[in-house]
Amino acid sequence: MEFLLTSLVVCVTPGTGVLFTIAAGLSRGTRAAVIAAVGCTLGVVPHMVAAITGLAALLNASAVAFQTLKYLGVTYLLYMAWSTLRDKSDLTAERESEPRSAGRTILTGVLINILNPKLTLFFFAFLPQFVSTDEPYAFLRMTELSAYFMLITFAVFVAYGRFAAAMRSHVISRPRVVSWMRRTFATAFAALGARLAFL
After folding, report:
1. Start-to-end Cα distance in the chain
2. How far is the C-alpha of 41 from the C-alpha of 114, rounded, in Å?
3. pTM as predicted
4. Is the CB of residue 120 less than 8 Å from the CB of residue 48?
5. Cα distance between residue 39 and residue 106, in whole Å
6. CA angle, corner 149, sides to 13 and 121, nearest 5?
7. What Rg value do the Cα atoms of the chain yield, rounded?
8. How far apart are CA 46 and CA 150, in angstroms?
9. CA nearest 148: which of 40, 50, 7, 2?
10. Closest C-alpha to 113, from 66, 51, 44, 52
11. Whole-angstrom Cα distance, residue 82 to residue 105?
12. Residue 133 DSSP class
């Protein structure tokens, strides 16, 4: 229960994945938000695999490796801020049905969470605390806990995305609101990147 509650707090806390899912819901509706949630959830898998296979200890012990991952995350956040700010297209639903758009959304979601140091810290430092070193099935236990975390991530992100999609009609017809929204998301991505750079 402690693990589940902590995981819920980690997922609910607004971060890059949440911002990306909300942006998808606002710009292209519920389907895009769910696709974004899928991408962000899939981005959890590399962290999970690294922790389960023992790479967590290596990364946790290597300051250089962690700094490299951190600044890769910073770079991608700043790219997200720049691309969001320069996007001048109208918010329409047409692109929602394009397979390439869905694939691009999933890929972006995956990259966002792959380069998310919050997940790195979670899986590389926090997860092992819930598995006893004397436990005979530690591998299965860590896999089980990681699966719970992924389910919680998906559920929380879908909830955020559906809420954003429900508000879509209130902003999509207002150009000034759309412009303000893009600047807000760009600023948020840049602020997260700046904060991460000085951690």
Report:
1. 30
2. 10
3. 0.67
4. no
5. 4
6. 65
7. 18
8. 12
9. 7
10. 44
11. 17
12. T
For residue 125, count other CB atoms closer than 10 A to its CB.
13
For 199, other C-beta atoms within 10 Å of its C-beta total: 8
| Residue 7 and residue 148 in contact, taking contact as beta carbons nearer than 8 Å | yes
Residue whose pair of structure tokens reads 């995305």 in the numeric block? 161
Residue indicated by tokens 């605390």: 129
Q: What is the pLDDT of residues 22-65, one digit of tens each?
A: 888 887 888 989 999 999 999 988 888 887 777 566 666 676 76
Element (H, E) at 64: helix 63-86
Within a 10 A sphere around the Cβ of 79, how many other Cβ atoms? 13
| Dist CA 75 CA 118 (whole Å) | 15
- How are the residues of the chain apportioned to helix, strand and coil, as percentages rounded to the nearest 5? 85, 0, 15
Q: Which residue's structure tokens are 């942006």?
A: 23
What is the distance between the alpha carbons of residues 126 and 102, in angstroms, rounded to a whole number? Answer: 32
What confidence category does residue 159 fall into, taking pLDDT thresholds of 50, 70 and 90?
very high
Task: Estimate to the nearest angstrom the gap between the alpha carbon of 91 and the chain centroid.
Answer: 22
Q: Is residue 91 a contact partner of residue 178, using CB atoms and an 8 Å limit?
A: yes
The residues near 45 (Cβ < 8 Å, ≥ 6 apart) are 150
Ranges of H-type helices in 123-198: 138-166, 168-171, 175-197
Closest CA to 146 of 33, 46, 61, 9: 46
